[in-house]
Amino acid sequence: MQADPEEKTTPRPGNVGLILVGPRYPENIGAAARIGLNFGISELTVVADRAPDQKRMLKMATHKASHLIREMRLVKTPREAAEPFHFIVGTTARQGRQRLRKNTPRLVMEQISPLAADPANRIGLMFGPENTGLTNEDLDYCQFSSTIPTADFSSLNLAQAVAIHCYELYMATGTVQPKSSASVEHANSFDLEGMYDHVTEALSEVTFLDDANQIYWMRSIRQFLGRVRLTKKEASLIRGICRKFLWHSRNRMATEHTTQRTGSTTSNSSD
Question: What CATH number should be reported for the domain whose range is 189-266?
Answer without folding.
Answer: 1.10.8
